[in-house]
Each structure stands twice: as structure tokens, then as C-alpha cells.
Amino acid sequence: TRQATANPSSAMPKSKRDQKVTLSRTVKKGRDRKLGIMEEVRSCVDKYSNCYVFAAEGMRNAALKDVRALLKSSRIFFGRNKLIAAALGRTLSDEYREGLSAVAGRLVGGEHGILFTDEPYETIVRVIEESRVPEYARAGFVATRAITLDEGPMPQFPHSMEPYLRKLGLPTRLQSGVVHLLTNWPLCREGEELNSDHAKLLQLLDIKMAEFKLSLLCHWSAAGEFREF
User: Fold this and answer.
1) What angle do helix axes 81-88 and 100-107 make, rounded to 10 degrees?
2) Residue 29 has what pLDDT?
3) Contact at 8 Å (CB) between 117 and 52?
4) CB 85, CB 77: distance < 8 Å
5) Where is pLDDT greater, at 114 or 17?
6) How confident is the prediction for the chain on average, in pLDDT?
7) Rounded CA gap, 90 and 213, in Å?
8) What is the pTM assigned to this prediction?
9) Which alpha helices (DSSP H) does the chain contain, by range?
10) Neighbouring C-beta atoms of residue 160, cutoff 10 Å
11) From the CA atom positions of the chain, what is the Rg in Å?
12) How confident is the model at residue 36 (pLDDT cuts 50, 70, 90)?
């Protein structure tokens, strides 16, 4: 009796390279997410009587979270600004409500966010003032003052950190197991742009040169009134 010969190609697993990848589901999911954000923004326009565009300096998510907690009944969007601007309407002909194209124009560009609220203006100003907190500067920040480290022992650092401090640019060495700075060393000068090493050293030294701060750029009311600050 003649035995059937197995087809090698049917027995071998298919290569992943040969599998067809369909992106339509991923694309649809992304499109649905964008539409969901736009609908949420427009829902806020209908729900709240006021909206503000604000600028953020020294942006930190933890600090913004504190602002959200102080304005629990309000809604804050930060990020996806082009999408939010599209939801508001960038031109007079496509704005969702009268005056919102002006809001969209202030939203795009820079670290800006938008706040929808029924809180009175005085409350918003108070919360913004109370939200100001010192923060560590990041690379690219312009130093607000000169800082020079004095020659001598640096007992705040364990001996195991000495190689890392040298890597960051500090002229250090171990003496009797203690980190020593070998000379007076200018960490930064006023008006100088900080690089990543400067920023890390300031953080290690617990020097907060920057500040998280919000500032209002404009206000829109449900009556269609718009004003800039």
C-alpha cells in the first residue's frame, strides 16, 4: 500500500513575517479616542459657565494634581491642545460656540491648559496663587542666581556616590571615606542655561531654583464674552 507523503509546508509553523498585520483596528481605536476627547471637551462647554486658558511654568504633574484637587467640581485638560482647539473650533465659521475660536487661538503654543468651571473668578485666582511651589530646575532652565560650592568635605553624600559626582563634573575625591570637593566650584552663573548635569547636581543638593506657577491667559463665559488677561 502506498503511504501518503506528508506535506512539509503544512507541518511547519508559519513565520511571523508571513502573517498579515491589519492596522485598521488600531487606527479605528485611535480615531475613536480622539473623537471621545473632542466630545468630552464640547460637553464641558455645555456644562460649565466659564472656561480659562492658563500657562504653566515649571510644569510638574504632581503640582497640577494638587490644583485639580482644589477645584474638584471643575475640569482641567492639559495636553492634546491641537485636538482640544479643533473641538472648540479654530475659526469663526467652525467654532462650537460663539467666541471659542479666540480661546482655541490662545490654547495652542507653549505649555498651556484649559479649565472649565462654575467657580467664581476670585476662587480661581486664589487657587492659582496658592498653587505656586518651588521646584527643581530642569535642563534648559535659565539660572536665576549664581551658585558656587565651597571647597571641602561634602558629608551629605555617601562615599559610594563620589564616582557619580565626578561624572557630573564635580572635582571630588575620597579622603578618609568622605567625599571632598577639591576647589571652590561654580555650579552655575546667573543667566546661564543649565545643562542636564547642572540640573541633576542642583537636585542632589536640594536646591530648588525653579517654580511651578500657573497664570491666566484668557477667559470665556457661556454668554459668549471673551477677555484676555
Assistant:
1) 170
2) 72
3) yes
4) no
5) 114
6) 90
7) 27
8) 0.76
9) 8-11, 24-47, 61-70, 81-88, 100-107, 121-130, 162-167, 196-204
10) 9
11) 28
12) very high
Q: What is the pLDDT of residues 144-185, one digit of tens each?
A: 999 999 999 999 999 999 999 999 999 999 999 999 999 999
For cell 481605536, the residue is 29
Cα separation of 130 and 211, whole Å?
12
Grid coordinates given for 42 = 464640547
Nearest CA to 57 out of 122, 112, 5 is that of 112
Indicate the length of the chain as a whole number.
229
Query: Which residue do the cell numbers 503544512 mark?
Result: 10
Considering only CA atoms, which of 146, 135, 150 is closest in space to residue 203? 135
* C-alpha cell, 44: 464641558
Place of cell 485611535: 30
Give the type of residue at 101.
Answer: S
What's the CA gap between 199 and 194, in Å, rounded?
6
- Backbone phi, then psi, for 112, in 5-degree steps? -115, 150
Q: Is the dihedral of CA 63, 68, 69, 70 positive or negative?
A: positive
